[in-house]
C-alpha cells in the first residue's frame, strides 16, 4: 500500500497542454478512478505516475519519496494495460511468472506466488494453457495475475475492461473491487465509463481539458457536482440545468425561473448569472407546479421511466415510476425538491456555496450525510 501525491503536475506535448497544474493526493489503500472524456488527460496522468511519461513540471511522490525522475522499473508499480500485453506463445503460468523471473526470485517462491494469484483469480485450471486461445475475460485475469504476483506498492490500470462486452465488463467490475478489497492495495484506475467508476471507486477524480474538476466520493460527485460539466457528465440521464432570471444574491432562499419563484437552499454566494441544477429524480410532476411543460418522449427503462418534457426554459428530464401512463403530448406541471436543488455560476460553471451542502460535508466529511 502507498500514498501517491501529485504536486503542480503539468505536461505539454509541443503547444498542446495535456495535463494542467494538477494537485492530487491518492490515499493509502484507496481505489481511485480517473474519469473523463477522451483527451481529458487521465491516461497521461496515469502514465506519468507509472514513469512512462516525464512531466514538463511538477512532482510525483510515492510514500514521501520524490520519484518524478525515476524510470518505471524503479517505482515498484504494476501497470495493467487495456490490450493485456501477454505473450501468446507462453502458458498462463509462465506469463504470470515472467516478471518474477527477471527479479531473480527463487523457483519455489515464484511457484507459490503464481499459485496464490491464480487461486485468487479463479484461473487455477488454466495455468498450463497458452494465453493465445483464451477468452478476453480470462486473458484479463492473467494480466491481473501478472501484476499481483509482484506485490507492488500500487496498481495502475488503463481501461483494462475496455475490450470486453457489456455483460462481462459488469462482472469484472465486481471481481476487480473484490480483488482490491482482498489485497488492500492502492489502485489508480482510468476509464471514460461512469458506471465503472461509480461501481468500483472509493474516490472519483473527474477530469476535463487537462484539469481536475472534482475529487470526491461517488456520493459527493453525484449529489454535489462541483461544476456544470461534472453534473452533465455524471448521471444517466444527466442533471437538468435551467437558467435563472437575474442571477442570485447572497442569502437568497428562492430564485426566479421564467418568472416563477422556485425555493432553493439558502446560498452563501452570489452570481450575476446562474443556473439551477437538479437531478431527474428530484423533479416532481406537480399539477399545481407553476413551471409548465409538454411531454415529448418517454424512455421506458423497466424499473422506471424518464419523461422528456419541453418547457419554455428548455428540456427537463423527470424520473417517474414504471407505471406512469402519461403519453406524449400530455401537459404537466413541474416543481423541484428544494433541498436537492443546486445553483451554479454561469460564467465559471462552478457550484455556489449553499447551506445544505455545508451541512452534508460537516456530517461525515465527504457529503455522505446528504441523503
From TrEMBL:
The keyword Transport applies. GO terms for molecular function: ABC-type transporter activity; ATP binding; ATP hydrolysis activity. Pfam families: ABC_tran, TOBE_2. Residues 4-234 form the ABC transporter domain. Keywords: ATP-binding, Cell inner membrane, Cell membrane, Membrane, Nucleotide-binding, Plasmid, Translocase, Transport. GO terms for cellular component: ATP-binding cassette (ABC) transporter complex, substrate-binding subunit-containing. Transmembrane segments: none annotated. GO terms for biological process: carbohydrate transport. This is ABC transporter related.
Amino acid at each position: 500500500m502507498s500514498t501517491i501525491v501529485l504536486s503542480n503536475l503539468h505536461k505539454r506535448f509541443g503547444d498542446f497542454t495535456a495535463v494542467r497544474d494538477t494537485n492530487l493526493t491518492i490515499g493509502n489503500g484507496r481505489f481511485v478512478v480517473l474519469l473523463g472524456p477522451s483527451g481529458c488527460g487521465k491516461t497521461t496522468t496515469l502514465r506519468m505516475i507509472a514513469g512512462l511519461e516525464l512531466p514538463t513540471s511538477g512532482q510525483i511522490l510515492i510514500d514521501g519519496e520524490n520519484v518524478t525522475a525515476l524510470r518505471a522499473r524503479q517505482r515498484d508499480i504494476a501497470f495493467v494495460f487495456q490490450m493485456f500485453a501477454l505473450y501468446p506463445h507462453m502458458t498462463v503460468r509462465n506469463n504470470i511468472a515472467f516478471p518474477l523471473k527477471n527479479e531473480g526470485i527463487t523457483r519455489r517462491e515464484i511457484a507459490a506466488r503464481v499459485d496464490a494469484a491464480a487461486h485468487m483469480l479463479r484461473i487455477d485450471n488454466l495455468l498450463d494453457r497458452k494465453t493465445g486461445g483464451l477468452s478476453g475475460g480470462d486473458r484479463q485475469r492473467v494480466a491481473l495475475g501478472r501484476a499481483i504476483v509482484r506485490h507492488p506498492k500500487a496498481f495502475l490500470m488503463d481501461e483494462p475492461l475496455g475490450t470486453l462486452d457489456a455483460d462481462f465488463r459488469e462482472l469484472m467490475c465486481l471481481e476487480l473491487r473484490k480483488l482490491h478489497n482482498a489485497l488492500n492495495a492502492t489502485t489508480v484506475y482510468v476509464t471514460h465509463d461512469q458506471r465503472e467508476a461509480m461501481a468500483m471507486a472509493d474516490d472519483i477524480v473527474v477530469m476535463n481539458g487537462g484539469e481536475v474538476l472534482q475529487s470526491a466520493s461517488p456520493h459527493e460527485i453525484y449529489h454535489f457536482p462541483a461544476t456544470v460539466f461534472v453534473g452533465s457528465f455524471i448521471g444517466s440521464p444527466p442533471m437538468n440545468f435551467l437558467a435563472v432570471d437575474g442571477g442570485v444574491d447572497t442569502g437568497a432562499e428562492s430564485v426566479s425561473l421564467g418568472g416563477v419563484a422556485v425555493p432553493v437552499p439558502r446560498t452563501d454566494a452570489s452570481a450575476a448569472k446562474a443556473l439551477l441544477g437538479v437531478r431527474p429524480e428530484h423533479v416532481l410532476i406537480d399539477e399545481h407546479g407553476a413551471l409548465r411543460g409538454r411531454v415529448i418522449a418517454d424512455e421506458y427503462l423497466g424499473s422506471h421511466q424518464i419523461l422528456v418534457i419541453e418547457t419554455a426554459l428548455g428540456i427537463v428530464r423527470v424520473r417517474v415510476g414504471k407505471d406512469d401512463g402519461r403519453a406524449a403530448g400530455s401537459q404537466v406541471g413541474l416543481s423541484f425538491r428544494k433541498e436537492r436543488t443546486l445553483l451554479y455560476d454561469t460564467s465559471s460553471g462552478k457550484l455556489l456555496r449553499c447551506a445544505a451542502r455545508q451541512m452534508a460535508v460537516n456530517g461525515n466529511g465527504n457529503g455522505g450525510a446528504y441523503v
